[in-house]
Amino acid sequence: MLIRVKFNHHVDSFAAEKADKILKNLERFPDNIKQIAENGFLDPLLNHLTEGSEEVQMEMTSYLGELILSNDSKAYVAEKASTSIIKMVQSGNTIFRNAEFKALSQISSHHPNGKILVEVGILNIMAEMMFTRRIYDELMDSKKEAAAILANVLESGVEHDSIKVNTHGCRLSSNYAVYNIIHMLKNSTPDELNINLIWILLCLTKSPRSMDTIVSVVNETEASYTLIELINNPHEQVGVAVIKLLILLKPHVEKQALSARFLAKLPQQNLTLNLALLNNNVVPTILERIFLIKRNGTRTSRHATVYLEGLDGILVRFTATLYEPQMLFLARTHNLTSVFTEMLIKTSSDEVQRLSAIGLENLSLESINLSRPPQIKKTGSKKLFRLPNLLSSRSVETRKIPVLCPVHRGACSSETTFCLIDAKAVERLLVCMDHENDEVVEASMAVICTLLDDKVDVDTSVSLLSENNAIQYVLKVVKEHRQEGLWQKSFWMIEKFLVRGGNKSVSDISQDRLLPASLISAFHNGNESMK
């Protein structure tokens, strides 16, 4: 009430003058100053903060740190009191350090205050807090608060290349500063500190000079592994921020080929990263590069092979999150089923074959959900629509009945439902099963297994696979490979052929002389599932 009356001079100047005197009398007691500030009148608090004794200044700063300020109030406080608060931080009194940092954190969160805070030297002081002060010198971890304030100021867009961060003249864009930030990230630090360290790096990437330094330090310290681990951090903000940083670093980290492989090896199930890649429209570029590499050949270039593996791996990661409508639309738009089918054979890289098979498995698992019985379209004269067909040998209405997929029992295509049958991928997958590399064989078998799932027409699948002599490929895998996962898949497939394949499949399997010995070995040495 007093504050409202004080500022209503035009209504009653006498009452306003009296209210002002009462408020000044109330200022004699610190608790009153706090209550006045809580009601929106900050001048008494700020005046005591800037002009009072050291003890009063500390108390006012503590009050300020507890207040929730509007953006206008933050701007006013920055203009009136930022210099005094910075001086208190520099004084080294750790008892009230927490309150000082809280106040600066609030002020810096209003980006227009960035310029004022830079002018009073906040960047230098916060950098010193982060890089040189020891945690055991403080009653609280000042590094975390300093990083938050520094990140806020940098996000305001202030020029930082010329800002010095220590007495030796090192700048914020120097190896010294970036190395210290990376070093803190590589050591187990609180999530609150990590998020602010990453935001600082994100802000620094806006400057070409700083970006060059970050790339150099990341490569030198192999910090990319640390950043990858942070993607799966339980703190969602950490994961989102580090993904943004990795995407910005991608074009600059080592060679193009290693950059692509780097992205491919990030956790495939991370939807945030996949959406970020999609929004950067990387798929058309990837497909274009794949086409050029395949046209020029990879046999004479190790670089081209590594690049192709990375590009293929990035495409595969999109198939790991097909539950997201945008990913489903992407896979259909670019017909990834056909892309991976082509990659199975036209490559000299085992890794490309393995990745392509994984992509096909992910896509094929969705086929049964996407394949739907077609709606019959009717055409003809509306006037005669109700006449029964028996009245004429020439039907008045004609029915267009699409051919159904024999396996998925619906209208299928490689493009819209990722159907392996329509993509003619089965024969190529069987060829990949006749491979020396266990991983390629297992990935290829996993794709074939999707055609024997109980959700599809297994009898038809077995019949189609038998036409391609699939059981012989499976029996050969049992003979030539000893990997447990391969044997488990092989026996599962053999069981399907025995139950659903009829006399011919039973005959083919029973004539294999080495199979009984393999079964006995698996029974004695395999896990419970295999037994």
UniProtKB/TrEMBL annotation:
The domain of life for this entry's organism is Eukaryota
Q: Which InterPro entries match?
A: ARM-like (IPR011989), ARM-type_fold (IPR016024), Armadillo (IPR000225), U-box_domain_protein (IPR052608)
Q: Which residues cross the membrane?
A: none
The UniProt entry, under Gene3D superfamilies, shows: Leucine-rich Repeat Variant (1.25.10.10)
Alphabetically sorted, this entry's keywords are: Repeat
Q: Which SMART domains match?
A: ARM (SM00185)
Record carries keyword Cytoplasm:
no
**Designated name of the protein:** Uncharacterized protein
- Name its species: Gossypium laxum
